[in-house]
Amino acid sequence: ALGAQGAAAQKLGDTGQRVGELMARQQKDGDEYKTMSSLIDFDVAQDRALDEAKLNAGESPEGFANTFQQGYNERAREFFKTVPDSMKPKVDMMLARRRGQYDGQARAFESKALDTYHANDLSSRLTDLGSLAATDPDRYQAQVARGISLIDSARISPQAKMDLRTKFAREAETYAVRA
User: Fold this and answer.
1) Whole-number Å distance between alpha carbons of 124 and 116
2) Which of 50, 68, 88, 175 could pair with 134 as two cysteines, CB 3.0-4.6 Å apart?
3) Rounded to whole angstroms, what are the CA distances from 37 to 31, 34, 44, 82, 116?
4) Is the pLDDT of residue 12 over 60?
C-alpha cells in the first residue's frame, strides 16, 4: 500500500514539475511577445524621431548623424532597462543592428544635406562675385579668379567643378560685358 502511495506521490510530483515547466515556458513566451511588441513600438518611435530630426536639421546639418546617434543611444539604453533578463542578450543584439541601420540613414541624410547646403551656398556666392564683376569691370579677372578658387575648394565632384568653372567664367563675362 505504501508503494502505491509513493507511486501516486511521484506522479503528482512529476505532474507538478510539468505544470511548472509549462508555466515557465508560457511566461517566457509572454515575455518574448511583450518584448518584441515593445521593440516594434520602439522602432516606430525611432523612425519618427529620425524623420523629425531631418525636418529640423536646419540649413547646415553639420553633425546631424552624431547628434541623432547620441539621442538614439540614450533612448535605446532607457528601452533596454525595460527588457526582461531572459531577453536581454537577444534584444541587445537587435538594438546594435538597428543602431547601425539608423547610423547609416542619418549619415546618408547628413551627407546629402551638406552637399545641397554647399551647392546652394556656392551658387549664392558665385552670383555675388559675378555681380561684382558687372559693377567693376576693371576687377573682372580678380572676381573670376576668386570664383574659380571658391569652386575648387567646394565639396562637389571634380566633373561638377569643371562644369561650374566654365559656367561661372561665362556668366561673369556676360555681367562684365553688360556693364
Assistant:
1) 12
2) 175
3) 10, 5, 11, 12, 38
4) no
The helix or strand, by DSSP H or E, that contains position 121, with its residue range, turns out to be helix 88-135
Amino acid letter, residue 105: Q
- Is 44 in a helix, a strand, or coil? helix
Amino acid identity of 80? Answer: F
Cβ neighbors of 57 (< 8 A, separation 6 or more) are 64, 109, 113
Burial class (CB in 10 A: 0-12, 13-18, 19+), 12: exposed
Length of the chain counted residue by residue: 179
Q: Which three cell numbers stand for residue 142?
A: 580678380
With beta carbons less than 8 A apart as the criterion, state whether 90 and 39 touch. no
Which has more confidence, 131 or 112?
Answer: 112
